[in-house]
Task: inverse folding
């Protein structure tokens, strides 16, 4: 019992110390940044584990759910919801969530913030935005294993608004092709669902690169829109505008796909029956590309 008690105390103490000497601060800051850069907590977990980033108790195992609760935790912006939980059983130290039995106190600027209020708010808006995206496009993952499938959940059907899925096709010459088609196409066995066209992955890559390069080359034309957007009441919109100004500043044109950069910039690509691809960026800019190859 004594040991257990001291273990709790040590853990709390350690977390407190790390918060204040910046050790923990570094991975919290990194987590918030990676999330705003378009990565999911699943992907961030894999990156942290690959790089051997250490958590509170020095271990290198991470849970996506833990990362998500860290993203939603107001303590990182310096505020504290006091009495969030309280001890029910003195002997077992079992805690239950405070459901109003004890008044909650919200304290602003309770301690040193690791994350600025602006970035914290942006992350909350991004969490909401992704939830809406999943509902709208009938998928349960915002981006699934982008290391091997960059466009997962990012190709949207211009007919039914649902996500496209990738299929491997083998042509008569034995060359493997990656082709995307609407996930609603054969949803019911034997019944033809959504009849929208398919599209080659190569074409999608070209469209993304072309559209991004159009932003870079015509930066001056977009500057007015971005500058205005910086003042937006929606902090996430302002943040995206700031980032697009930064990314396009003196930027070289892209010549090949860089998945992590794509995640930072692309919202989705919409595929239309007539071959038009609409590239929609995270700042809200839409660029239309005609697919003339098929
Ligand atoms: Zn469709």
Result:
């Amino acid at each position: 019992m004594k040991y257990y008690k001291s273990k709790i105390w040590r853990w709390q103490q350690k977390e407190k110390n790390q918060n204040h000497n910046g050790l923990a601060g570094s991975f919290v800051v990194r987590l918030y940044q990676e999330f705003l850069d378009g990565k999911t907590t699943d992907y961030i977990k894999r990156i942290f584990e690959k790089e051997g980033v250490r958590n509170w108790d020095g271990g290198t195992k991470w849970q996506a759910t833990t990362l998500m609760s860290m993203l939603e935790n107001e303590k990182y912006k310096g505020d504290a919801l006091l009495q969030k939980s309280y001890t029910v059983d003195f002997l077992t130290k079992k805690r239950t969530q405070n459901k109003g039995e004890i008044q909650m106190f919200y304290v602003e600027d309770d301690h040193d913030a690791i994350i600025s209020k602006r970035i914290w708010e942006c992350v909350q808006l991004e969490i909401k935005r992704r939830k809406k995206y999943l509902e709208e496009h009938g998928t349960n993952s915002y981006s699934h294993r982008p290391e091997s499938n960059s466009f997962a959940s990012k190709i949207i059907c211009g007919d039914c608004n649902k996500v496209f899925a990738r299929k491997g096709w083998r042509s008569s010459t034995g060359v493997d092709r990656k082709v995307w088609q609407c996930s609603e196409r054969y949803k019911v066995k034997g019944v033809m669902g959504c009849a929208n066209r398919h599209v080659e992955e190569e074409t999608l890559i070209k469209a993304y690169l072309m559209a991004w390069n159009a932003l870079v080359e015509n930066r001056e034309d977009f500057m007015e829109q971005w500058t205005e957007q910086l003042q937006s009441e929606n902090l996430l919109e302002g943040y995206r505008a700031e980032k697009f100004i930064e990314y396009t500043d003196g930027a070289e044109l892209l010549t090949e796909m860089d998945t992590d950069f794509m995640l930072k910039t692309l919202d989705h690509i919409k595929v239309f029956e007539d071959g038009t691809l609409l590239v929609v960026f995270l700042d809200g800019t839409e660029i239309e590309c005609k697919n003339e190859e098929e």
In short: Residues 150 and 192 are 27 Å apart (CA to CA). Residues 157, 159-160, 162, 182, 184, 194, 196 surround zinc ion (CB under 6 Å).
